[in-house]
Write a structure and sequence with these properties.
single chain, ten-stranded mixed β-sheet, three-stranded mixed β-sheet, 40% helix, disordered N terminus
Length: 547
């Protein structure tokens, strides 16, 4: 019997450029040396050189449309030493459909960290209204260290990439050893590069790209992790941000351990909502006539799988697998109910629908790692780049004492039974080197539009509200009853109309907007969840252990 890997189942002036590099905050980091006049002049000259690059645009690949162009530019590995080592930044472009009506460029990011964004313009062009396509050149890019942008690797084996592990007393020592080994392998394999794979540096890359394209400002659509990237850009380069749409938002104050723990916190009210829904539909699903009975049905299956894994289509599923799968599934009560019905069949030895069990079953390689997008991309690039960002952005958020993770995991499993121990147990970041820069404190008045579903498995509603409060010039679109991670576009006239209006006119709503989900928009969310694709982008696959 094959054993499935445990995983949760179911985004200027030279002075302006240099200032963010040396910015400080309350986070712990090594103090930056005050630059001398000579070093500042050299840095100015080096950065001017980057901004004067002329991209060599050519057709991205034989299978892409002829008008979809790609190029590679160079950016500094370390912006504190811009004259030092350079790395590649892969960029793409679809030109405006009406040059005479063109406003500028619209950059995008699909989430992650570690998501490839080079092909996002191909997805965006089919979803944006014609009026928006006339306004912008659509610009995609693989963030530094990702995909075709000097991809990083830690040389990890597939099992080592499973970075969300449940707490168990008998295996915790092995989990500590695993976390330490992963950090050591990353340090040994890419120690000179990894410390500079950060959100702040990716935001700086975006500003170099802005200058290379000859633009005074950029507009932007970012999903999930991409909302944090966009927020950091507005903090570092407030005068360069034009129209920013931040969909399914990260709370900057909780990046990154706190955001991972929010997966567990947010799942509990979603679980309660699901038990009520399933009880109301007891005649159809047969999971229980009351919320308590529905919950008992679920936990009985978990207990059964703990005793003997439930086999489905050749894959053995433990109780931990079922808990982690349900964590994401319950944000769509219908999706969770359909899956649990099939799991009950499998537990009873009856044939089960693998399609409807997608919430609980994800064969090895299809979730956290998967196949590399190109032959040049290391197989562990998605995980290596994710770890780099979540560990480097704010090392102070990660305790150094392994015992603190044990205590948190035990406590949080009691508070959040579905996923609390997964979220709070030991991670490689516990053994990572200290951040080379302080964490970014986001607080500004740049205009932007935050878009958020009420029921989002990756970035709960409270997270979106927190970013909205932090970006004091923002307005927020809340989709009551909205399910799924990633809102725009979903066919809902209220949400799509508000976002499209902002992108086309630049006018934010006069006040925050409340939309209500429709049956069709939630059905679209379920479809996106099943095919692991974030709305607006054909790549990368939407993994449930990513933002």
């Amino acid at each position: 019997m094959r054993r499935r890997r445990l995983a949760p189942l179911l985004a200027v002036s030279v002075t302006a450029t240099l200032a963010p590099v040396l910015a400080t905050s309350t986070a712990t980091a090594a103090p930056a040396a005050t630059p001398s006049a000579a070093s500042t002049s050299a840095a100015r000259s080096a950065l001017d050189g980057y901004k004067k690059q002329k991209p060599r645009w050519e057709r991205c690949d034989a299978g892409s449309p002829a008008e979809f162009e790609c190029a590679t530019i160079k950016v500094p590995l370390d912006y504190r030493v811009p004259g030092g080592k350079r790395i590649d930044l892969a960029i793409s472009r679809l030109r405006s459909t009406a040059p005479d009506k063109r406003r500028g460029v619209l950059l995008s990011n699909p989430g992650g960290p570690g998501g490839e964004g080079l092909h996002m313009p191909l997805g965006m062009q089919d979803r944006l209204p014609a009026s928006a396509r006339q306004k912008y050149d659509l610009i995609g890019f693989d963030p530094r260290g990702v995909g075709r942008s000097s991809p990083v690797s830690c040389g990890l084996e597939p099992d080592e990439e499973n970075w969300l592990r449940p707490y168990k007393e008998e295996t915790f020592g092995k989990d500590i050893a695993w976390a330490r080994d992963v950090a050591d392998k990353c340090r040994e394999k890419a120690g000179g590069t990894l410390p500079h794979i950060t959100t702040r540096n990716t935001a700086r890359d975006m500003d170099v790209l802005r200058a290379v394209l000859g633009e005074k400002k950029i507009s932007y659509v970012g999903y999930s992790y991409g909302t944090y990237l966009g927020a950091v850009y507005t903090q570092l380069f407030p005068g360069r941000a034009d129209r920013f749409v931040l969909d399914s938002a990260i709370d900057p104050a909780r990046a990154w351990r706190g955001m991972i723990q929010w997966w567990a916190e947010g799942a509990e009210p979603a679980f309660d909502r699901w038990t009520e829904w399933a009880a109301e539909h007891a005649e159809k699903y047969g999971l229980g006539a009351t919320p308590k009975e529905v919950g008992r049905t679920f936990w009985d299956l978990v207990a059964q799988a703990d005793e003997k894994p439930i086999e489905v289509d050749g894959w053995a599923n433990t109780g931990d697998d079922i808990r982690s799968g349900m964590r994401a599934a319950v944000f769509s009560p219908q999706y969770a109910s359909e899956g649990l019905v099939e799991l009950k069949k499998a537990a009873a030895g009856e044939p089960a629908s693998a399609k409807k069990l997608a919430a609980f079953i994800r064969p090895e390689g299809s979730g956290t790692a998967g196949a590399a997008a190109t032959a040049e991309t290391p197989s562990d690039n998605l995980t290596a780049s994710l770890l780099a960002v979540v560990c480097n952005d704010n090392s102070a958020a990660w305790p150094r004492d392994p015992e603190s993770y044990r205590r948190d995991a035990i406590e949080d499993k009691g508070r959040y039974p579905l996923f609390g121990d997964f979220a709070s147990s030991i991670k490689p970041c516990a053994f990572w080197d200290s951040s080379v820069e302080p964490a970014t404190e986001v607080s500004n008045t740049v205009g932007s539009l935050v878009v958020q579903n009420e029921w989002d498995s990756q970035t709960p509603l409270a997270s979106g509200r927190a970013l909205h409060a932090t970006l004091k010039g923002s307005k927020m679109v809340t989709v009551l009853g909205g399910e799924g991670h990633g809102v725009y576009p979903n066919g809902n006239a209220c949400t799509d109309g508000t976002v499209n209006g902002y992108l086309v006119t630049g006018k934010l709503p006069a006040k925050d907007v409340i939309c209500r989900a429709t049956a069709d928009s939630n059905a679209e969310a379920r479809k996106n969840q099943k095919r692991d694709v974030l709305p607006g982008s054909p790549l990368p696959r939407r993994a449930p252990d990513r933002f």
